[in-house]
Amino acid sequence: MKGKMTIHHEFSIGEVDKRIYGSFIEHLGRAVYGGIYEPGHHESDERGFRKDVIGLVRELDVPIVRYPGGNFVSGYNWEDGVGPVEKRPVRQDLAWMALEPNQIGTNEFIEWTRRAGSEVMMAVNLGTRGPDAARNLVEYCNFPRGTAWSDLRRSHGCEAPHNIKLWCLGNEMDGPWQICRRTAAEYGRIAAEAAKVMKWADPSIELVACGSSNDQMPSFGNWESEVLDHVYDQVDYISLHLYFGNRDNDTPNFLGKSLEMDSFIRTVTGICDLAKAKRRSKKTVNLSFDEWNVWFHSKDADEKIEKWTVAPSQLEDIYTMEDALVAGCMLITLIKNADRVRVACLAQLVNVIAPIMTEKGGKAWRQSIFYPFMHASKYGRGTVLHCPATSEKYDSREYSDIPYLETVAVHDQTRDALTIFAVNRNLAEPMELEADIYGFAGYRFLEHIILHNPDIHAVNSPHGEKIKPIPSASGKLEGSRLDVSLPPASWNVIRLGK
Predict the structure, then answer these.
(1) pTM as predicted
(2) Looking at 26, 79, 139, 172, which residue is catalytic?
(3) Of 38, 119, 139, 291, which one is the catalytic site residue?
(4) Residue 473 has pLDDT above 90, yes or no
(5) Is the bond preceding residue 68 a cis peptide, omega within 30 degrees?
(6) Is 434 marked active-site?
(7) Which pLDDT score, from 0 to 100, does residue 47 have?
(8) Does the annotation mark 38 as catalytic?
């Protein structure tokens, strides 16, 4: 089987915003307690943060982490998580039917992100609360000194402001599962007022409005349109959330699901541009795809979890080789749409549907999806090139004309590097990929990295990695023609450079 693509350095889509390689930590399951934070663990530092987890997060090079939710934020009082730890209340977390001890809150999490080489994307509660609590949190985090909330922060040991620049106006507010679900009109009004006072408190911040919870919601489309009627002039982004699963064990269909993600992006982009045209505005609202991943393995187990415990083992999907391929296709889709998707968050980061897993008192280890994300974050920064690609196609139960080749190329001019990411969706046949490359005189073939296991249901574990990158001798660049062989059902990274 053959695939072909054309790459020219002058034909670009846009610049990658590094924040598309963001992630997410919610007060959910073992993401915080037993994940990033485990006092007494032999790998924990003086604050109780696991250094082995921090090392893996740094390996992924995650620029932002969304916090503290998620569904959790719609019932969260941020004041519960600041001040002396011994005085903080234990609360019912109604979103996940667990107990929240509030041992980790705003200041601790910001300290953790600094140690992990990242920044915070902070969400405010627009479920049980509203504009007043939101603007108070901005003042607490970002105002230097001399006001009640900024001086309270300083009394908590944080003399310098945190300067958080990216804020989410609630979470999935059209979802019936959400605490204090709202109509589009209700949410649009409260989000507009929260945005107004938050930007008055700190004009330098950027804001993300809630889009519909996913593209299958009855409210999808109309929600975005009505919300933008209220908030267009105040916000910078609108959110998209999407998870894929394979409960029917239909791998060809599962591997085609990223086509739905691309359609979702294009639809919301069109709605944003319609709102712009209606206003005759010069401002463009871009997209924040701040929840995306594979999620289905743990759902049956989650129904059996005991309620009202601290940090139960919730949403702990163990990912397979086929999940890594789907995650890789989703990453390629985000990169292809880098002109409009400026923020994205792999949900989540540790233990909860995550690339990083931990054992209580034991090891931290990499799941299969760790590697496509790491490769994209490490090598997918620069200019996204428009790369026409052709290959054979197939139809599945839900989708038609699924190309066996999913690919994109990114040119990093600062490093004189060109990286091609490619997934071969064919489960049985290798693909001989031919790429015609123009405008890269002096470049040479550097390496071909492959993620592949003949067993698409293989998984990693604390005891070893059945799925890990391997170097390949496949690949040669002669003149302007690159030839490389992609194994069946594989994620591939082909790197050229001067």
Answers:
(1) 0.97
(2) 172
(3) 291
(4) no
(5) yes
(6) no
(7) 96
(8) no
